[in-house]
Amino acid sequence: MTLRHQIIALAIVPLVISILAITTFITWQSANLAKNSIGTFEQNMLKTKEGEILNLTNLALSAIHTIYDKAGPDDAAAKRQVAEILTSLDYGRDGYFFVYDYDGNNIVHPRQSFRHGQNWLDLTDPDGDKVIAELIATAKAGGGLHQYKWQKPSTGQIADKLSFVVSLDKWHWVVGTGVYLDDVFAQSAAANAVMRANITKTFVIVALIAVPSVLVVFTTCMLLTFHERRMADGRLKELTQRVIDTQEEERARLARELHDGISQNLVGVRYAMDLAGRKVRTNVDDAALTIDRGIEALNGAIKEIRRLSHDLRPRVLDDLGLTAALEALCYHFAERTGIDTTIDAAGFTGMLKPEANTALYRVAQEAFNNVERHSGASKLSVKLWSDGGRARMTISDNGTGFDGSKNGGSGLGLRNMQERMAHFRGLLLINSDETGTTLTAMMPRSANLPAGKQAEAA
Predict the structure, then answer these.
(1) Fewer Cβ within 10 Å of end Cβ, the chain: N or C?
(2) How many CB atoms lie under 10 A from the CB of residue 189?
(3) Are strands 106-108 and 340-347 parallel, antiparallel or unpaired?
(4) How far is it, in rounded angstroms, from Cα 26 to Cα 369?
């Protein structure tokens, strides 16, 4: 996966995951809330139905109370009169009272006359519940509610029914009435359908918000990526051109140094050798002096080669470390320019990586070049120390200074120094005014050698 794709993935994937998580949580919460609400609604409806059939049963008992209390256990006339009253207590298409004796024989059933006089003790509903036997047992136990399945008179379909039964012990009768629950379940199903519709609506709303948001983020990421890529390409081209320019400047400098210094010295050596050869052939007495001058010129060429070699890559940096390399740099700088140069490296622990040592050395080298070319300073001081395990280097001069926001701030040398420090996530601070310039280079702890290699170096 390319960096661009990684950036897009890091931007889009968390957003998509968050939206899915939020949508799932909202849907789950809504479903649970609706389920609990529907459950509460259903329970309240059942409680209402229970209260309704209890009141109806009390009403029926009140209607037959006088007759039942005056009648004896075998009063057939009273029984017949009570059965007629209960048969007449009709409420609605599916509301009626029923009576069975303890043996399961039907005495009253206004809606299903075929049951009259028959024994239904073994009758079972589709769920395997022995309905009449359970109703009789509930009545004998003091009365109560019992739910079962029964044919609904208005539709002829089997439906859930909740009945309340009591016993007339003197006659061994079970009297009861009930309500069908399919309307309750229908209302619950309707509420459940509304709940699902609301959840679907919520999901659609979230999707309508989320999808454009993802598209906006995706488009923004793409635009930013393309913009950053164009900027990066521009910086890369600029850096490439800067490298080429730097190489050309370095080649020009080396060519100039070789032509003006070493080449001239070697030409002088050649002329001196030619002159000495002619004098030897003609037996001139000062041939030895001519050879000495040639040797002196050759020594100058050797020194110039060493100087160029030192500028390109000082061996003392690899052999003796940063402190010795900076001391040598200060010595040669003072010898060449006449500027009073001092160095203080007493507080430096010297535990940097080789690349970091090179970076600090090149920063100092570039700073010295700027001092020599532009500052007009008479004094230069270098301080190298460690602060909390972090390498620090300060280079100060008493020159004329420069305005960093104008010509000096965008110079190639300063940019090279800043890029060298930025490579190690370090800082390069420059403070310049008419009294002089102070350059501070700060390396982070990450530029130090690992602990094991520090022990070996020590």
Answers:
(1) N
(2) 12
(3) unpaired
(4) 68
